[in-house]
Model the fold of this input.
Amino acid sequence: MNRKDILYIVVLFLCFGLCSCSTQKKSLAASKLNTSSLEVLNTIYKVNTYWQTNNPKPGSAFWDNAAYHTGNMEAYFVTKNETYRRYSEAWAEHNQWMGAKSTDKSKWKYSYGETDDFVLFGDQQICFQTYVDLYNLAPDPKKIARAIEVMEYQLSTAKNDYWWWVDGLYMVMPVMTKLYKVTGNQLYLDKLYEYFSYSRKLMCDEETGLFFRDAKYIYPAHKSANGMKDFWARGDGWLFAGLAKILQDMPDNYVHRAEFVALYQKMAATLADCQQKEGYWTRSLMDPAHAPGPETSGTAFFIYGYMWGINHGFFEEDLYLPVVKKGWDYLSKTALQPDGRVGYVQPIGEKAIPGQVVNASSTSNFGVGAYLLAACEIYRHLNK
Done:
């Protein structure tokens, strides 16, 4: 046997060893989560096909539809299924790449409203997340012109109380980091921190790292049915997922980045203690008896937040992958219905409501979006 033959055998051996190592790592990840990347991929297709087949018409750009599209875009990034991209593109075109459509800046408002003059209200701005994602796929200035006009007008004002409810942190924080990444304008990051600091002072319970939904729910003026702090699961789910989304686009050397990371990690520790043995989180996080039973939207946002944090080195896998496993067991075996419907989604609201019926037939666009976020991040973990 000559030197060339020996070298060839060594190369084959090394390649086989590397392939075996990669396969073993994937197998280990699959065993820890009790599923495979193919099973999760099939779930993504099943859920999204069901939703889009049953909702073929583009809806408004308001928050609930827009939250679905944040999940649909992740499904596109994972699957490269052009049907998903076209679905979001058609929705954006239908809404003229705008949220609220007023052009008279003197009348723009941000307290709460669904009419076209509430341009500065975060629920009318979440659509910009998907518009930026679509722009990045095929740059065209029209796709983000309105987003830049609205957000840079907002940045020019002296006000800092735009995010007065916790949901708004998911709606708009990622808009700020996405537009920073596109434009390079540092003001997006600095105003994000300024607005977030107002929100934190208003709503954050520093002991737990969790946020009350808004000023109406702050303990002890407001208490759960059993006299406890009443943290609404979907509200904190919006924040936990929102932190994961902004850390994706925030520079590593940004001066306030460590503060966001610390909150993200503190929330993770607290939320793990609130998870029920069945894998879901109840609607009132620290008082399961307040509104007992499974709920999908908050659970899915939490699982997305945990899985993204594990995938990017913010959370210890040994500590938090069991949390993800229990959560995914619930999402894939209880929340997901045989036809692809995502059930047990609490209807639109702002709190955990004792006696409110949430069952297998309870579904909604934003809940499907949250589900897709979680599934896509689990797929990435299994497939990396």
